[in-house]
């Protein structure tokens, strides 16, 4: 069995908080563009977020899509799982962050996002590869691009 890719490095002697997330690749115009979420600190991510207590991956994706992009989504293929180790200076916390990545087959805009602090950007997959902050998000996007 192939092990999942690991990004970042676990620093010895540091205490890591586990934060499991579910993320998606959403495209439009025959895969010419993907949507990214820009956090208030300027960093870009794939849409998605932390899995809350008792949520499935799909529950999390449905909730996060309404919060972040205002979309109802229909989730398709599972791209895979990747683990990322990082330090958040904003939260002064070290994270072990397993992420589960999916492709959205269809979506429709239902409303404006309920989270008002993020910006949204439609961009080419190639530019997204340069913008995305997390290696695990670039890995998932690259897998999608290679399909």
From TrEMBL:
Transmembrane segments: none
Pfam families: NUDIX
This protein's record includes keyword Hydrolase: yes
Nudix hydrolase domain ranges (all copies): 17-147
CDD domains tied to this protein: NUDIX_Hydrolase
Listed GO MF terms: hydrolase activity
SUPFAM superfamilies, A to Z: Nudix (SSF55811)
Keywords assigned: Hydrolase
Highest taxon listed in the record's lineage: Bacteria
Protein name: NUDIX hydrolase
């Amino acid at each position: 069995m192939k092990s999942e890719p690991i990004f970042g490095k676990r620093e010895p002697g540091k205490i890591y908080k586990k934060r499991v997330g579910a993320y998606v690749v959403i495209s439009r115009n025959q895969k010419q563009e993907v949507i990214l979420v820009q956090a208030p600190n300027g960093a870009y991510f794939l849409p998605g977020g932390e899995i809350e207590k008792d949520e499935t991956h799909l529950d999390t994706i449905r909730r996060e899509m309404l919060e972040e992009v205002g979309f109802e989504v229909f989730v398709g293929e599972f791209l895979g799982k990747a683990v990322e180790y990082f330090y958040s200076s904003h939260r002064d916390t070290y994270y072990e962050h397993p992420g589960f990545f999916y492709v959205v087959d269809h979506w429709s805009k239902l409303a404006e996002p309920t989270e008002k602090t993020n910006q949204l950007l439609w961009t080419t997959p190639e530019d997204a590869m340069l913008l995305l902050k997390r290696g695990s998000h670039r890995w998932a996007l690259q897998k999608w691009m290679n399909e």
